[in-house]
């Protein structure tokens, strides 16, 4: 099950957040800061799946945009990884030029 969905720029600013479980506002801020720090600090050669507290993080980078999804331990990481790509493709078709160059992840 998806717990949350974040879109973050390279500066670590949250551009979109959606939570599918209740999380208090002050805890959301702390959670987002820790999640963003974990994802932005990783190199491009590292895996896009991170074990974090009682859930997993799946993230993907497109140009200056990071999309991070928090899932529970039973969810399929590869399915969520493809979900992120499909989401970005839809955004790109609808709005055009969602990512600066192409949809090929960095």
Automatic annotation (TrEMBL):
Question: Taking every annotated instance into account, which residue ranges of this chain make up the domain AP complex mu/sigma subunit?
Answer: 1-99
Q: Which PANTHER family match?
A: ADAPTOR COMPLEXES SMALL SUBUNIT FAMILY (PTHR11753)
The family assignment reads: Belongs to the adaptor complexes small subunit family.
**What assembly does the database describe for this protein?**
Adaptor protein complex 4 (AP-4) is a heterotetramer composed of two large adaptins (epsilon-type subunit AP4E1 and beta-type subunit AP4B1), a medium adaptin (mu-type subunit AP4M1) and a small adaptin (sigma-type AP4S1).
Primary localization class, coarse: membrane
What is this protein's function per UniProt? Component of the adaptor protein complex 4 (AP-4). Adaptor protein complexes are vesicle coat components involved both in vesicle formation and cargo selection. They control the vesicular transport of proteins in different trafficking pathways. AP-4 forms a non clathrin-associated coat on vesicles departing the trans-Golgi network (TGN) and may be involved in the targeting of proteins from the trans-Golgi network (TGN) to the endosomal-lysosomal system.
Q: Tell me the Gene Ontology biological-process terms attached to this UniProt entry.
A: intracellular protein transport
Provide a GO CC annotation, any one.
Answer: endomembrane system
Instruction: State a single Pfam family of this protein.
Output: Clat_adaptor_s
Going by the UniProt record, its keywords in alphabetical order are: Membrane, Protein transport, Transport
Q: Report the source organism.
A: Cyanoderma ruficeps (rufous-capped babbler)
* Protein name according to UniProt: AP complex subunit sigma
Subcellular localization, per the record?
Answer: Endomembrane system
Indicate how the chain sits in the lipid bilayer.
Answer: Peripheral membrane protein
